[in-house]
Each structure stands twice: as structure tokens, then as C-alpha cells.
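User: Transposase, Enterovibrio norvegicus DSM 15893:
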Amino acid sequence: MKSEGIYQELWGILTSYNIVRLEMAAMAKEHKVEPLRISFLNALYLIQDEFIWASGRSPGAVPNALKMLRENGKRLILPNKRKRKAYPRAVLKRPAKYPTRTREKKATRS
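Assistant: Predicted structure for Transposase:
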């Protein structure tokens, strides 16, 4: 493979990534959530499927398909992130390999 082919592949991947992110931003705006709350992988799969189905449709049907794609974006919304604990994590002591021997205290005479 020549270097031009490698550059072409990289540009294709970067273009695809930006198209997916752009659609995610449009879905987020439509559903009034942050774009980071939409799953990238699921959006990528949904857009891939839509491109496969769009190849067999007439060009006039693409706007309706794009509208349906954005409406289906509601399924991709992730739940809110959990809040962090109010207390810091504690590091537990490492247990001893062998039991330790302790001296018994001598009883004092009364």
C-alpha cells in the first residue's frame, strides 16, 4: 500500500468519525441532552445501518430517513452519571501471610 492510500484511509476514518459526532450533536440537540450522554458506539452502528438501507432507497427518501434516524436517537441516550461518594476511598491493610504470635499478659495478683 502506498502512502497516498494510507492518507486516504486516515482521512476517510476521520471524516466518518466527525459525521457520527455531528449526528450525535444533532440528536442531542433534538432530545435536549448533552452530546456526551449519547453512546458513540450505538450511534455508529445505527448510522452504519442507515447508510446500508439508504443505498437502496431513492434520493428523495433520504431526508425522511435522516429524520427517523434522529428520532431513534432517543434510544441511545445514556443514564445520568452517578455522583461520586462523599467520602474518600480507604485503603485496607494487607492481611499478614501468617498469624502473628502475641504474648499473653501476666495476671496481676490482687
